[in-house]
Structure formats: C-alpha cells, structure tokens
Amino acid sequence: MGYVDWSVAIIQPFLQGLVAFVVNLLLAIIVFVIGYLISVGIGKLVTEILKSIKFNKLFEKEGWKTALQRARIDVDPSGFIGAIFKWVFVMVSLLVAVDILKLVQFADFLTDVLNYLPSVIGAALIFVAAVIISDIVEKLVRVAVERMKIGYGYLAASIVKWSIWIFTIFLVLDQLLPNSMLVQILYSSIIYGIVGALALGLGLAIGHGGKDVAAEILQDMKKKMMQK
After folding, report:
1. What distance in Å separates the CA atoms of residue 76 and residue 47, rounded to the nearest whole number?
2. Is the pTM of this model over 0.85?
3. Count of CB atoms within 10 A of residue 170's CB?
4. Alpha carbon distance 85, 79 (integer Å)
5. Would you write out the chain's pLDDT as a tens digit for each of its 228 residues?
6. How far is CA 208 from CA 137, 198, 201, in A?
7. Angle made by CA atoms 86, 91, 94, in degrees to the nearest 5
C-alpha cells in the first residue's frame, strides 16, 4: 500500500480551482468593464442623434413635458432613450461576464430579462416614431384644411394627432404585453366607448337644437368653398 500525501492531494486541487476562479473573475471583470464603456458610448451616441433631430422640441410640442412637469417629473427625453440603449448593452455585458463565472441561475435570470428587453426597445422606438409622425401629420392636415378655406383646421389636426396617439398607446401596450387579454379588453372598451360617446353626443345635440348648429356649420363650410 503506497503512501499518500494528503496535504498535496487536498491542497493542490484547491489551489488549482482557486487559480482558475481568479483567472475567470479577472476575465469577467475585464469583459464587463469593456462592455460597460462601449454601452456608455452607445447611449451617448443615441442621445446625440435624437438631439440632432430636435427630438426634445418635438416632445415639448406634444405637451408631454408639461404633463410630466405637473407630475413633478423632470426628464430629458433624448437622454432617457439613450439610457435605455445603454442599459440594454450593460445587461448583455453582465450576462457575458456571469457566463464566464459559470453562475448558471443568475445567467438564466439575465437571459429572461434580455429576452424581454427587445419589447422595451420596440416600445421606445414606437413612441419616438409617434412623436415625430404625429407632429408632421398634424401640420400637414392643418395646412391642407386651411388651404381648402373651410376653417376648422386646428380641430381636424387635433383629431388626427390624438388618433395617432391612441393607436400608439395600444401598439406600445401590445409590445410590452403581447397577447394580453387586458390590452384587448382595454382596446375594445375604448373603441366602443368612443363610438358610444359620439353616438350619444350626436343624439343629445340633435335633440337639443344641435341640428341647427350643425346646419350653420355646414352652411358656413359651403360658403367658404363657394368663395374659392
């Protein structure tokens, strides 16, 4: 029976494991730091791009800044979108670092978070597009109606703008909560509510002399079109 040096048999594997862990830890830290710096750069780039296209001014025109100020929320729209992109890439860097350390459960959690982040980014992009599109369409509708010299350009533009925003809200909710019964119920409720309110309002208006008012409006529009 041979002699076994238990100190070597126990300590050597421990030291090997410790060295491997330290090497992996240093590698994970380096990967995360580099990824974090890249993430910060991407966030700043997105912020500067949005500022260059005057996104903040469009945000203010739509009344969102005023609404947030009333709620005592001070936010830089371009910076907020840029921060979303930054933290997405920070999460990716953290996932890579965690994978190097072989922390399986934490890596699975981060994977679930990252799988949901595209929905958040999609919702943010939809919101940005809605701010830009609603501003452009509102101006086009107002100019088109005013050029027809029938008046009510501001009213028509406002209706179109808010129609875009209502549609956008549902797109964002559907992006964040895909196949959600709550979103479908909310969508149906609002659509039926708007139709019902319009029908009720029209009925009450006609019943309380609104017929004469409507006739005057139509007559006014007819005169303006005849004068062209």
Report:
1. 10
2. no
3. 15
4. 10
5. 455 555 556 676 667 777 778 888 888 889 899 989 999 999 999 999 988 888 777 766 655 556 555 545 566 778 888 888 888 888 888 888 888 877 777 777 777 777 777 787 788 778 777 777 777 777 777 777 777 666 666 777 777 777 777 778 877 777 777 766 766 666 666 665 655 555 555 554 555 555 555 566 556 656 655 655
6. 35, 15, 10
7. 125
Q: Are 141 and 129 in contact (CB under 8 A)?
A: no
Q: Provide the terminal-to-terminal Cα distance of the chain, rounded to the nearest Å.
A: 115
Amino acid 6 reads W
Burial degree of 218 (CB within 10 A; 0-12, 13-18, 19+): exposed
Q: Which residues contact 84 (CB under 8 A, 6 or more apart)?
A: 120, 121, 124
Helices first, then strands: H and E counts in the chain:
8, 0
Question: Which value, to the nearest 10 degrees, does the dihedral of the CA atoms of residues 114, 118, 120, 124 take?
Answer: 140
Quote the CA–CA distance of 170 and 184 in Å, as a whole number: 9
